[in-house]
Amino acid sequence: MRLLSALNLKTLSSLLAIVSLTNAAAEEDAIASPDSAVVKLTQETFSKYINENPLVLAEFFAPWCGHCKALGPNFAKAADILDSKNIQLAQIDCTEEQELCQEHGIRGYPTLKVFRGESDPSDYEGPRSADGIVDYMIKQSLPPVSLLEETSDIDDFISEASAAVIVETGSKQNETFYKLSALHRDEFSFVQTSNKDYTKKYGKDKFLVFLPDTKDPVIYKGDESYENLVDWLSVETKPLFGELDGSTYQSYMTSNLPLAYLFYNTPEEREEWKSTIEKIAKEQRGKINFVGLDASKYGRHAENLNMDQDFPLFVIHDISSNKKFGFPQDNSLSIKTLPKFIQNYSSGKLEPKVKSEEIPTKQETSVLKIVGKTHDQIVKDETKDVLVKYYAPWCGHCKRLAPIYEELADKFQSSSEAKDKVIIANVDATLNDVDVDISGYPTLILYPANDKSNPIVHQGGRDLESLASFIKESGSFKVDIDSLEADVIPVKESEETAASKETDITHDEL
Ligand SMILES: *[C@@H]1O[C@H](CO)[C@@H](O)[C@H](O)[C@H]1NC(C)=O
Ligand SMILES: *[C@@H]1O[C@H](CO)[C@@H](O)[C@H](O)[C@H]1NC(C)=O
């Protein structure tokens, strides 16, 4: 998954968190009470405990984190209920167990993982209420595949399911079927049967997908390759016109098909659009996924898609290229005009809406300011090693780095030789669309001359020396700035610029 999508996911999940926080209890503590069934794990005890217990939900947390505090009481309550079912809940305090948390790649708090033994834990993707945790973990403890033989049992199972049910009529591809079920056990249900009614009607040894509220299943017609089956499932398990929320976001984002959104104001409005969108979605099956999004809850997500919060709105997000194609927000969106828009999209006639600041007419410092519209052209300049700092105005590490980064740029600008070979640039990634993996701010990436398909992410220190040696070691020109004499007289900033910069800094810190 592209990390930019991950950022969007963060935004959506923080919107979701706001919704759930309003329901949170008053007395909250991230650390479960010693009286509860929650087990506290450390570097010393972790492996042994995880290997001795068949199913463990582990929470990696920090005592100061707000979402951890909200989760705390729910986690403890769920632990008490699940203890009798041989399902354990454990906590790891990452402020004390830094190494352990690092080993597990913990990047945010709380992170919840489901362990069945030590290798390959899966991410917990259920709700964070006590009941929600209990339901989710009980489902995790059941066999992923239900073996049903009575026609009425299968019929009932399918009609009661709230998400897709995948049926194998036979067991010829048993191993594949179990592998699929392990992959998707959180989202869908899996049934295996040799029931005669089903084999007669749909054939023997077939894979079928039943969607809620539809009569006939979709039957798999492809070959036996596991990858093709995974792709097929990713398409056919989605409703024609699905709903985007915290529980479905991940599966739409990882499907890699473009995602078309209708942001609607009310359920009635969604209903008005339904048959039109379903009709289009049927034609576009396997090419575009279609979802509704409740604008009264997640309206702010519009801005991630470069749209104004003016609803209803329609926008297609091509996830693999991170390009966004919005229906113009000039009141011309209607059930009649939508099909033509989709046609235009499919025939490649639409221009993506790129979020970008204006292209600067003059550069204020030695650091070259990049914007969305100029990013690709500048970083792909084959004649230059280009170092780019991707930052957010609110980020503290970025502010600390800023003066050092400017000093670095000054050094390169003051030598005519270095200046011709190296560009030191930055871009405010919150105001500009860039098709780059950004996992945190600041992210520093060097695009070496004559090797633009191999950008290198800076991992070292953020002091002047480390940055200079990064350019020397990773750049194609191996420019060693310390061995070059300054021979360009730096242009003095005008007093006006300096003054306005100072104001900016004060403003930032407010
Ligand atoms: C299918 O595979 C599962 C998991 O490996 C196993 O438990 C089950 O017995 C197998 N069923 C058949 C019919 O081979
Ligand atoms: C589709 O494209 C045509 C021709 O390029 C254009 O005239 C029309 O306005 C577009 N319609 C929509 C809804 O995008």
From TrEMBL:
Pfam families: Thioredoxin, Thioredoxin_6. InterPro entries: PDI_thioredoxin-like_dom, Prot_disulphide_isomerase, Thioredoxin-like_sf, Thioredoxin_CS, Thioredoxin_domain. The keyword Aminoacyl-tRNA synthetase does not apply. Residues 1-24 form the signal peptide. Keywords: Disulfide bond, Endoplasmic reticulum, Isomerase, Redox-active center, Repeat, Signal. Disulfide bonds join C65-C68, C395-C398. Its EC number is 5.3.4.1. Residues 19-143, 332-476 form the Thioredoxin domain. One of its GO terms (cellular component) is endoplasmic reticulum lumen. It comes from the Eukaryota. The keyword Magnesium does not apply. It is found in: Endoplasmic reticulum lumen. GO terms for biological process: protein folding; response to endoplasmic reticulum stress. It catalyses: Catalyzes the rearrangement of -S-S- bonds in proteins. Its main location: endoplasmic reticulum. Gene3D superfamilies: Glutaredoxin. GO terms for molecular function: protein disulfide isomerase activity; protein-disulfide reductase activity; unfolded protein binding. Participates in the folding of proteins containing disulfide bonds, may be involved in glycosylation, prolyl hydroxylation and triglyceride transfer. Belongs to the protein disulfide isomerase family. This is Protein disulfide-isomerase. It comes from Wickerhamomyces ciferrii (strain ATCC 14091 / BCRC 22168 / CBS 111 / JCM 3599 / NBRC 0793 / NRRL Y-1031 F-60-10). The lineage of its organism: Eukaryota, Fungi, Dikarya, Ascomycota, Saccharomycotina.
